[in-house]
């Protein structure tokens, strides 16, 4: 197998359970329709309204912070405006399910392992690196798992258990599992993107 450093793209998505910037309105972008519900104070547009009104380029750039798949980002951005977050998430899910194999592998390659808590002992990092190397050698892409719903102290055990368990999968079974985890990651990041915003 080609060494990892030569096969992975320079761009890698960080694990980002926190806030992600919302695209701002570009010059010439129509004023968003604020007649619908908004959580923003004083009639300011909500994050979803800003996303709906952003230029295609800005919307796609924001979507790429959720999943590094240009095809997915274009498809989700093209179907704007979305009436609510649930509609957007449903469209994002559908687009993720429909990713061609090459795009799914590229999106997987752009991912990084979840970060460990700051006080994690060095042996934990070694164990995680070794387990991920074994996984990547078997399946050809980094291990991807959704952990945003976990407490920080639960992440390491969950990730190690997940890698060890999934190493037993055959490649086709793991393709489905990894694709589902990728979809969950994109959904979680998109929810954060449009729920928190950069206010």
Can you give a write-up of this model?
This protein is an all-alpha fold and 199 residues long. It has 2 domains: 18-106 and 186-195, Oxo-4-hydroxy-4-carboxy-5-ureidoimidazoline decarboxylase (UraD-like, Orthogonal Bundle), CATH 1.10.3330; 110-183, no CATH class. Helix content is 55%, strand content 0%. The protein has 9 helices and no strands. The protein is globular, with a radius of gyration of 18 Å. The relative contact order is 0.17.
TL;DR of this structure?
This protein has 199 residues and is mainly α. The chain has two domains: 18-106 and 186-195, Orthogonal Bundle (UraD-like); 110-183, no CATH class. The chain has nine helices and no strands.
């Amino acid at each position: 197998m080609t060494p990892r450093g030569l096969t992975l793209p320079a761009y890698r998505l960080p694990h980002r359970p926190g806030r992600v910037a919302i695209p701002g309105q570009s010059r010439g972008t129509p004023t968003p329709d604020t007649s619908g519900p908004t959580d923003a104070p004083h009639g300011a547009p909500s994050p979803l309204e800003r996303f709906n009104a952003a230029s295609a380029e800005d919307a796609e750039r924001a979507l790429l912070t959720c999943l590094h798949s240009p095809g997915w980002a274009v498809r989700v951005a093209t179907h704007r405006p979305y009436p609510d977050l649930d509609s957007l998430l449903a469209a994002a899910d559908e687009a993720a399910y429909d990713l061609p194999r090459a795009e799914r592998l590229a999106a997987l390659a752009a991912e990084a392992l979840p970060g460990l808590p700051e006080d994690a002992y060095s042996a934990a990092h070694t164990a995680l690196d070794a387990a991920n190397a074994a996984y990547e050698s078997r399946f050809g892409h980094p291990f991807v798992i959704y952990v945003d719903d976990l407490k920080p102290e639960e992440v390491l055990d969950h990730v190690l258990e997940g890698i060890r368990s999934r190493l037993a999968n055959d490649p086709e079974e793991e393709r489905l599992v990894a694709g589902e985890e990728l979809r969950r990651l994109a959904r979680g990041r998109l929810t954060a993107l449009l729920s928190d915003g950069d206010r």
